[in-house]
Amino acid sequence: MANHKSALKRDRQSKVRRLRNRINKSRMKSAVNRMEEAVTAGSEEQAREALLQAISVIGKTAAKGSIHKKTASRKISRLTRKVNRMALA
């Protein structure tokens, strides 16, 4: 455990940030899972709606710094391709 005052503060900040990041990432994963379920069900309309919500949540997660912006971009791209492929089939 930390002994210096600044190290104790850094430890408190790290714990708060870790919890905040966990909440944001969990919200993002839930949105992605809802979109995946809609694709699996074969409902194009639901998949598109879930995709829009997932894109929004992923963007917000990146904006808050919980994930890198390029990671967010890659996730959005892959999800969009998945929905577009489902629409073609």
Structure keywords:
89 residues, mainly alpha, Methane Monooxygenase Hydroxylase, Chain G, domain 1, 3 helices
What can you see in these coordinates?
It is built from 3 helices and no strands. By secondary structure, it is mainly alpha-helical. It has one domain (5-88): Methane Monooxygenase Hydroxylase, Chain G, domain 1 (Up-down Bundle). The model has no long low-confidence stretch (mean pLDDT 95).
- The CATH class turns out to be Mainly Alpha
Strand content: under 5%
Q: Give the rounded overall mean pLDDT.
A: 95
Q: Tell me the helix content.
A: over 70%
In total, the number of strands is 0
How would you concisely characterize the structure shown here?
This protein is mainly α.
List the helices and strands and how they pair.
Elements: H1 5-41, H2 44-63, H3 69-88
